[in-house]
Design a protein that fits this description.
alpha/beta; binds cytidine-5'-triphosphate; Rossmann fold; elongated; 23 strands; 2 domains
Length: 398
C-alpha cells in the first residue's frame, strides 16, 4: 500500500510511545521507508536501538550528534509524510507556537510534506482549553489531527486521550495522503466473503471463505481512487477504510438483493464472494432436535449473482468474476466466462500450493473475453489485489 513512500515518524515523550514500534513495523510492512525522530523525553519510553534496527536508519534525536549537525531541513524535505505519534501535550503546544528547542520540532518546522498529528495524553489535559486551542491552531496550519480514543489511560483513569491504534493510524495515513486517482470517477462494486444459509435458529450452511481477497480488492480499488460499494458476507474482518461503503449481508438472497440495487449504477463489478449455490428449502422455526437417527435437508438453488449482473450488463460496464476449481480448470473457467457474460474470469486452482480459503497467498490465471489467458506467479493477496486493480485500470482506459 505504501511502496516507495518516505515517512518521518516523530515520537515524543508519552507512555503511548510503545505503540510507535508497532506503527513503525506496520508502515515498513506496507512498503514505506521510515526514519524516526525522537524528542529527548521519548528516549525514556522507547529504545532508539529498536527503532533503528527496525527502520534500518539511524535514529535522529539531537540537533547535534557529537561534532555533527543533524540536517533536519533535509529530513523535512525528504519525507512524503510526517507522522507525529505520539504527540504529547507538551510537543503539541510547542508545535502550535513554533518553538524549536529539539530536533523533532526542527524537522516539523522544516517539513514541506503533509503532517499527521496523533495526540496522546491524560483526559484532563486533552480537555484543557489550552490543548483545544493548540489543536485548533495546528489544524489551521494545515496539519491533520487524528482524534484520540476513549479507554484506559496511564493514570489509571478511563476516558479520552488514548492514542489511536497503530492499525488505524496506518489506514488513516494511507486513505488521506496516498490515495491514487487512476480510477477516480469510477464506481465499483465488490462482493466478498462467504454466505451463511440458515437451517434453523442456531445452524447454517456456510463455507470456508475468509473474505480476505474480496476485502483486499475493495481496498485496492478504493486506493486507486474508485468509489467502492462492498457487499460482504460474514467475514473475519471488516474494512477499516471509512470511504468504502460496506453493506453487510448473511445469506445469498440478501447479497443478491443488495447487489441488484447497486449494480445498475456501477462501472465495474468484481464478484469475489463464495456464494452458496444452494439454500435450505425451509427454515425450521425451532432448533431441530436429534430425535431421529437419519435426517436430510432439502436444498433449492440460489440466484447466481454474477450471472444475473452479467446478463443485465450495459455496454460500459465491466465484470470480473472468479472461479474456484479443483479439476478441468481452464475449461471450467472459460465456461463460466461465457455462461455468466463476464469480461474476465480469475481462476484459482485449488491444487496449487499456497492457494485456497484462509491462505495469505494466491496464484491465478486470468481468462479474458478476448481469448487471452494470463498466468500469474504466486503472490500475497494484497499484491494480487493491487495487480488486478492496475490491470483493470489499463483495461478501462481502452
Ligand atoms: N457466484 C455468484 N453467485 C452465485 C454463485 C457464484 O455471484 N450464486 C460467482 C462467484 O462470486 C464467482 C463466480 O460466480 O465470481 C464463480 O463461482 P464458483 O463458486 O467458482 O462457481 P459456481 O458458479 O458456483 O459453479 P460451481 O460451484 O459449479 O463450480
Amino acid at each position: 500500500m505504501l511502496e516507495g513512500k518516505k515517512i518521518v515518524l516523530g515520537i515524543s515523550g508519552s507512555i503511548a510511545a510503545y505503540k510507535s514500534i508497532v506503527l513503525l513495523r506496520l508502515l515498513i510492512k506496507a512498503g514505506a521507508d521510515v526514519q524516526c525522530v525522537l524528542t529527548p523525553a521519548a528516549k525514556d519510553f522507547v529504545s532508539p536501538l529498536v527503532l533503528s534496527t527496525l527502520s534500518k536508519h539511524p535514529v535522529v534525536s539531537q540537533l547535534q550528534e557529537g561534532e555533527e549537525w543533524s540536517n533536519h531541513v533535509a529530513l523535512g524535505r525528504w519525507a512524503d509524510l510526517m507522522i507525529l505519534a505520539p504527540a504529547s501535550c507538551n510537543t503539541l503546544a510547542k508545535m502550535a507556537h513554533g518553538l524549536c528547542d529539539n530536533v523533532l520540532l526542527a524537522v516539523y518546522l522544516s517539513a514541506t510534506c503533509p503532517v499527521l498529528v496523533v495526540p496522546a495524553m491524560d483526559e484532563d489535559m486533552w480537555h484543557h482549553p489550552a490543548t483545544r486551542a493548540n489543536l485548533q491552531t495546528l489544524a489551521s496550519y494545515g496539519n491533520n489531527v487524528m482524534p484520540t480514543q476513549h479507554g484506559e489511560l496511564a493514570s489509571g483513569l478511563v476516558g479520552m486521550g488514548r492514542m489511536a491504534e497503530p492499525e488505524d493510524i496506518l489506514v488513516f495515513a494511507t486513505e488521506h495522503f496516498f490515495r491514487q486517482s487512476f480510477l477516480a470517477g469510477k464506481k465499483a462494486l465488490v462482493t466478498a466473503g462467504p454466505t451463511h444459509e440458515p437451517i434453523d435458529p442456531v445452524r447454517f450452511i456456510g463455507n470456508r471463505s475468509s473474505g480476505k481477497m474480496g476485502l483486499a480488492l475493495a481496498e485496492a480499488l478504493y486506493l486507486a481512487g474508485a468509489e467502492v460499494q462492498l457487499v460482504a458476507g460474514p467475514m473475519e474482518r471488516n474494512t477499516a477504510f471509512k470511504g468504502i461503503q460496506q453493506h453487510k449481508v448473511n445469506t445469498a438472497a440478501e447479497m443478491f438483493q443488495a447487489v441488484e440495487k447497486l449494480w445498475p449504477h456501477q462501472d465495474l463489478g468484481i464478484f469475489n464472494a463464495a456464494v452458496a449455490d444452494f439454500t435450505p428449502a425451509t427454515l425450521a422455526a425451532e432448533k431441530i432436535k436429534k430425535s431421529q437417527d437419519h435426517m436430510s435437508i432439502s436444498l433449492v438453488p440460489t440466484t447466481d449473482i454474477l450471472a444475473a449482473c452479467g446478463h443485465a450488463k450495459q455496454a460500459q460496464q465491466f465484470i470480473m468474476g472468479f472461479a474456484l476449481e479443483t479439476e478441468n480448470e481452464s475449461a471450467n473457467a472459460t465456461l463460466k466466462l461465457n455462461n455468466k457474460n463476464a469480461d474476465v474470469i480469475v481462476l484459482n486452482a485449488l491444487r496449487h500450493e499456497g492457494v485456497g480459503f484462509g491462505a495469505d497467498t494466491n496464484r491465478v490465471t486470468l481468462f479474458t473475453k478476448g481469448g487471452e489467458s494470463l498466468a500469474w506467479d504466486l503472490m500475497d493477496k494484497q499484491t494480487l489485489a493491487q495487480k488486478l486493480v492496475w490491470w483493470l485500470g489499463e483495461k478501462l482506459k481502452k
